[in-house]
Amino acid sequence: VQGLLAGKRGLILGVANNRSIAWGIAKAAADAGAELALTYQGDALRKRVEPLAQQLGGQVVGHCDVTDPSTLDAVFAEVERLWGRLDFVVHAIAFSDKSELDGRYLDTSEANFNKTMNVSCYSLTAVAQRAEKLMSDGGSILTLTYYGAEKVMPHYNVMGVAKAALEASVRYLAVDLGRQNIRVNAISAGPIKTLAASGIGDFRYILKWNEYNSPLKRVVTIDEVGQSALYLLSDMGRAVTGEVHHVDSGYHVVGMKAVDAPDI
Ligand code: NAD
Fold this sequence. Notes:
GO molecular function: enoyl-[acyl-carrier-protein] reductase (NADH) activity
Enzyme class: oxidoreductase
Largest sheet: 7 strands, parallel
Structural class: alpha/beta
Radius of gyration: 18 Å
Number of strands: 7
CATH superfamily: NAD(P)-binding Rossmann-like Domain
Number of helices: 7
Oligomer: single chain
Strand order of the largest sheet: 3-2-1-4-5-6-7
Shape: globular
Keywords: Fatty acid biosynthesis, Fatty acid metabolism, Lipid biosynthesis, Lipid metabolism, NAD, Oxidoreductase
Organism: Lutibaculum baratangense AMV1
Binding site for NAD(+): 14, 20-21, 41, 65-66, 93, 163, 192-196
Helix content: 40-55%
Distance between the termini: 38 Å
Order of helices and strands: EHEHEHEHEHEHHE
Bound molecules: nicotinamide-adenine-dinucleotide
């Protein structure tokens, strides 16, 4: 992959720490020669993200909280000031109130439904609006989704509904931006133990279930998601847009529990 992203400049939104999927993608992109800009959400994460960005020879371009559009404006203004243009954006942002990632979807509150949709779904469109202006030479926008968008997964609840809307947004954005050669895709990653995932009820059980029942009989890593992302971010994927690509050890093709799966 050396040189695959040489000369490309990418903005990565959603690194919280060294277990973040966005960090796996950032490492792979840097290894492939990309120049990177990272954001952090709030001062508590700043001190984690700054050394990580440095490790990759990248920049930190500010605080980004997608519920405050002025922070997105500031981040894109800083990218424009630095580079004048942009080749790719990684959107790895999601949030829902932890108390509603357990129990029944039926009990979702209106306030948390709106917040989850805003942060986990609308924010991709908000990012794409700003990225369009800087992708004068075409570009690639990548978001992260999960199988809970397609099928009901225990405890995923309102996040599953938001991911379904996110995947639909990928398709609509792909059409709107296609003429400008800006591609929009998603990776549907298998479960990985990250900060965000720790909010989901019975997550350890979900990990084990995927390990025992996926075709590859294991869970995936952030580095594997990162390497798959290279295809979509680079010119290797130049004819691919509107796609939801599963990086999940093949779990999404399985119809029932494996007959030889141990009890969990
Ligand atoms: P993570 O906790 O490392 O990353 C989530 C990020 O979202 C954090 O950096 C956080 O700062 C950011 N974020 C939350 N609210 C925000 C807001 N209002 N403004 C700006 N940023 C905000 O966890 P992760 O698992 O790496 O999550 C990244 C993406 O991957 C999410 O979209 C998640 O749904 C998706 N995903 C995760 C898994 C998994 O099992 N971990 C599987 C499939 C998809």
